[in-house]
Amino acid sequence: MSPSALSAADPAAAGIVLIVDDVPENLALLHDALDEAGYLVLVATNGESAIARARQSLPDVVLLDALMPGMDGFEVARRLKADFATRAIPLIFMTGLTETEHVVAAFAAGGADYVTKPIKPAEVLARIAAHVQNARQMKQARSALDAFGQATVAVRASDGRLVWQTPLARQLIRSWFEPGRSEPSEIAPPRLLDWIMAAELARRERREVPGLVASEGARRLLASFHDQTGDEEWLVVLREENDASAIEALIAAFRLTGREAEVLYWVIRGKTNRDIGDILGTSPRTVHKHLEHVFEKLGVETRTAAASMAMAKIRAASEGA
């Protein structure tokens, strides 16, 4: 199927492109070339309308004129990148200014690429196609994380900004660090940033990366590194643990009594029989008896095997919650 036929079937199939330029001739040239290639084309002639249209339509790419009357392209870019809804949209600057300082300014404002004037439609189409593909892959990855209920957040190390986060991550961050705020912050909480710095240092020194970010009574917030991008963004997975819910999960999974589940839970936490006895207010001998019953019900012979099975069940229960 040709791009034109594809466009007729689905105007947004190739992607949505917002062109921001105050020169009608440039708009007409780009609009025609993009429309023929199958893109849904939106147009803005000034900075204010560009920001409004980007927020409303969330295009796959923005083609942005660097120099415009009033709000220039650099300021438009900064505002789009400061807005959580639009910051992930790739920005391609269009400029006749090839001096180094202007190119640097474009990237500093959040640009992903630039093309020089006079505009060559074939070059623009090639650049747009690459950025649309990358943007859609990122959207698909984030949608998959959302669908599977992963609490994942991307944090930029240079300024602590939350580049993006899944709904569950936003919920956990707000619950743990911003319970009184009417609007969620776009800056990572200090405790999360402290954990990232400590964990990165541990990784560099080949030490065990700490998991605990915060604790409150029977609740704990744990974090683990998923990845680090080349532009100093940390991808972090958050997970909340709760003693009571974990014990309930063990009772349901293995048909344990309440006390047996409590003993198994503290085995997972690395406690000895004496420690568990102190926690539960009973003797180590009684703990041992409960543990024998646990081994029988799980069909295992060692604490390590029991802990491994129990941890898998708790993790499955928390991910399915």
UniProtKB/TrEMBL annotation:
Keyword list, A-Z: DNA-binding, Phosphoprotein, Transcription, Transcription regulation, Two-component regulatory system
| A Gene Ontology biological process term | regulation of DNA-templated transcription
Q: Which residues form the Response regulatory domain?
A: 16-132
UniProt-listed SMART domains = HTH_LUXR, REC
GO-annotated cellular components: cytosol; protein-DNA complex
Q: What is this protein called?
A: DNA-binding response regulator
- Residue ranges annotated for the HTH luxR-type domain, each copy included: 249-314
Family matches, as Gene3D superfamilies = 3.40.50.2300, Winged helix-like DNA-binding domain superfamily/Winged helix DNA-binding domain
Residue numbers bearing the 4-aspartylphosphate modification? 65
- What GO molecular functions are on record for this protein? phosphorelay response regulator activity; transcription cis-regulatory region binding
Q: Matching PROSITE patterns, A to Z?
A: HTH_LUXR_2, RESPONSE_REGULATORY
- InterPro entries given in the database record: CheY-like_superfamily, Sig_transdc_resp-reg_C-effctor, Sig_transdc_resp-reg_receiver, Tscrpt_reg_LuxR_C, WalR-like, WH-like_DNA-bd_sf
The protein's matches in Pfam families, at most eight in alphabetical order, are given as: GerE, Response_reg
Highest taxon of source: Bacteria
